[in-house]
Amino acid sequence: xxxxxxxxxxxxxxxxxxxxxxxxxxxxxxxxxxxxxxxxxxxxxxxxxxxxxxxxxxxxxxxxxxxxxxxxxxxxxxxxxxxxxxxxxxxxxxxxxxxxxxxxxxxxxxxxxxxxxxxxxxxxxxxxxxxxxxxxxxxxxxxxxxxxxxxxxxxxxxxxxxxxxxxxxxxxxxxxxxxxxxxxxxxxxxxxxxxxxxxxxxxxxxxxxxxxxxxxxxxxxxxxxxxxxxxxxxxxxxxxxxxxxxxxxxxxxxxxxxxxxxxxxxxxxxxxxxxxxxxxxxxxxxxxxxxxxxxxxxxxxxxxxxxxxxxxxxxxxxxxxxxxxxxxxxxxxxxx
Amino acid sequence: xxxxxxxxxxxxxxxxxxxxxxxxxxxxxxxxxxxxxxxxxxxxxxxxxxxxxxxxxxxxxxxxxxxxxxxxxxxxxxxxxxxxxxxxxxxxxxxxxxxxxxxxxxxxxxxxxxxxxxxxxxxxxxxxxxxxxxxxxxxxxxxxxxxxxxxxxxxxxxxxxxxxxxxxxxxxxxxxxxxxxxxxxxxxxxxxxxxxxxxxxxxxxxxxxxxxxxxxxxxxxxxxxxxxxxxxxxxxxxxxxxxxxxxxxxxxxxxxxxxxxxxxxxxxxxxxxxxxxxxxxxxxxxxxxxxxxxxxxxxxxxxxxxxxxxxxxxxxxxxxxxxxxxxxxxxxxxxxxxxxxxxxxxxxxxxxxxxxxxxxxxxxxxxxxxxxxxxxxx
Lengths: 336, 378
What we know:
By secondary structure, chain A is mostly beta strands.
């Protein structure tokens, strides 16, 4: 073997070694990548924003104008195909499709017989997993139940202790279709939770300003993941959160600054666990995480598109947020 | 017709039976005999003060929750509760310097209609009380003293009202001297009420119509310096409950805007109505039912004890002939559903606020029902 040959062999060996090294490196990199991907897939914590498309606040898209007079509550059917808006002074619930086309209405002036449908001052609205629509009416002390097309089914009969009376405001369901109601009975401002058969399972709170006490609680919402209950304690200018058992956890919106609430009315929680609160006198929607940390807000005071004058009801379906803009007589649609 | 349902008072009185106390005292003192003198003294002091201690404790128990409860955002204000932030959020359009008129109306209505933020639903004219069920499984909400702006309960729409949020000609605003017909103004809640606590009954403005001097309006139902909504709660009042227990000042107060209505028979002047400048005769106010005016043109026979119309009780001696007639004896403050068959002459269509012939001029009762309650027709 010549020296040259030896040299060539050496070079080849070196090159092979280099190749192996590169290969090994690549395998290692792949392993790291796979590990990262697996970590991202299996780690439940939202490392990246889960609502596709947006990290920050949603963007205004369009509004539904439906000849409203004092619109209050809003809700969607479970599939998001129908939007229900309580048109309080007209004593009706108006229905729209996803594109904002009117789909008729239901309700009308109350008749004295409780078998008949009708409203005196309908307020808030919630839809259960079967698509049944529940509408509260404090002046009549009633919650009425309709099917998804607005056919009257019956009035909800609370099954509780004898002599039970209530003054229902906000309504909401959890994923097991338990009915959550905020109650403004004089001296007893509280939260009532009924099971699917109408039995009163749990109640908590009373009128006052301390933790776990309320002054005209309006909106209520349940976080699907944690089961936490969020209550818009409207006249105390705050939102309070509670665990499943009604134990007080935290107060939201009392600190001075951007996170502060003035007159929170309704709450809706996105699938990603963001707590959206309409602040009627702040004229915007304030958004917090489930621990009460302020994230961002959207909307300002005014009459232009994307501006609010006394926002009241709120509903979220998928990436869409519906906000009732009371004094501008419309429902705004925002999208993530 | 309006049915003023009075919220019954539930007063709890604690009675000390003096007889029982004496008997008990003797036995107790016997038991004290074995004790040291000082200990005995301490016990005696405590014992003698029992009624006082009981009363103080009772007062403490009854008033503590009241103060802590603070259901009304209008006050009482304390440094520990930030009630101001409800209506004043400094970084938004509702900071007090930026508060436009329409917004203030919507602000008050946010709570005072439909029952989402207060028990008094002034647009509907009802006091929402779920503990008062009716036949049909619904509730029998009491009618507010002021009536309602839009409706009176579910039954009927109002036939006369102070129109809020719409420009209207103020009847009789002209001061006699100026001959100035009624001013056109847009009423809001703030034309008549303040948003904050104040000394006047129902937190009424001290200077409505921007008069130069404060006008005091008082009633027997509460201490407005300290409490708001005192009388909505029968337990806290312990006295009257929710009634029209007026004391003084209403006529001067209404007269701050409706200036000419304070004058009985005077020179001719323009009151801003279709009669232009002409001689006016008005029914007297601030006169008591016993005597009335000595020089009254028409002599009237009163039956004050039979009347269900509210009067001003200046002395607090209950309903007696020395009570005085005032604007709210005949009128509601917000709105009424009284029916008029051709009486009210002032054509509301001229003022562009209500369909012609429908206006009942805020009168409490149908047609002239009220008149014969005070003036017996023989």
